[in-house]
Amino acid sequence: MVRNSDDFFPDVPSSHPFHIFANAHTSLLTSHLNVLPDWDMFQTSHPYSSYHAAARAISGGPIYITDTPGEHSLPLIASMTATTISPTPPKTIILRPNNIAKCIEQSVYTPYQARHFLQIGNYHSGSTASYGASLLGVFNVSEQALTELIPLAHFPGVKPGERYLVRAHPSGDISSPLSLDASDPVPSVLNVALGLKGWNILTAYPILSATPPPSTSTSSAEKKKKEEKKKTTELAVLGLLHKLSGAAAVVGTPKVEHLNPTGSENVKVMITLKALGVLGVWVSSLPEPEQEPEPQSDVPKAPQPPPPQPQQQNPPEWQNHILVLLRGRVVPVSTVSASVVGGNKAGKGGSVLIEIDVERAWREMGLVAGWGREVEIEMIVS
Fold first, then answer.
1. SS3 157
2. Which DSSP letter does residue 250 get?
3. Regions of the chain where pLDDT drops below 70
4. Any idea what the Cα angle at residue 82 is, between residues 80 and 83, rounded to 5°?
5. Cα 104 from Cα 138, distance rounded (Å)
6. pTM for the complete prediction?
7. Among 1, 84, 253, 304, which has the highest number of CB atoms less than 10 A from its own CB?
8. What is the DSSP track for 41-105?
């Protein structure tokens, strides 16, 4: 481990942005020296505390804090750390990407006074070369508010032919699926606006596709029509939400498979985490309930009385299509929630963000750690 920069001065506001700028550019050298760059310690209770925390979280190096005793920002510390399933006492770890962050190629020769965003890139790779999450830290190092368009091509490790979902932290905004393909109808650019001391961590997650296999049995015309209506289910594993570098909590490469290879639309995704927290999984769409066509008749219908109002509220529609298991057991319903991303208010035509509170489920289910220190989650989409 080696210091990656000179000191900054807590009481000199202009030294904070330049400190991040210097570290990002020094990493262009130190990332090739087989060392772990140390971006220096910082205070969690300071006007620039979150600015420094965002830079340290994506740096790929250690995180140190130097607070006055009793003057800690516990929410900020929680956004950089997570709890493992280790036996008592639980172990707190940082979510460190497995590569070293540095200034991206497109920002290398941008002067500090150029009134442009500083863009710092890192890549958290999975167990296969084709899978990984790209992290792009965007920092306003100027003395005025700025707005810029950031192309998907600025994200380290993104590949042509693949589709990605970009999520912003801390806002939680999620983009439409993007790609580097010039023929894609959705422009692969992001509009980012930051004020003074502003920052944003944009993470590009690869979209995993699960196409229903064709049925091998001979089918009637009606069955063939239903076969054609089957849609490819797309998923993106977003790691631990509410964390600065939550993508780094994912271990290896998530696995997607069909439960019945003879034509079932049920898809299972298996995710391994190194720590507990709220796991986010984006699903392209959930099946809409099928409605039987009404028989045609020339006889006019008699007026029907209004249906009785239900005394008890029905469960949300998504609960009929999502099942989450932890250690082979179904997690409590209260630990899973869903929200529509895009589309109309009814959710038609929009994707769905599934949030799984793995930490709360682990606690309420009374699970204990075995030999392993990783958490395996199974989610079935029907």
1. coil
2. B
3. 88, 129, 212-231, 260-265, 287-318, 342-349
4. 155
5. 11
6. 0.86
7. 253
8. -B-SSSTTHHHHHHHHHHHSS---B-PPTT---HHHHHHHEEE--PSSSPPEEE---SS--EE-G
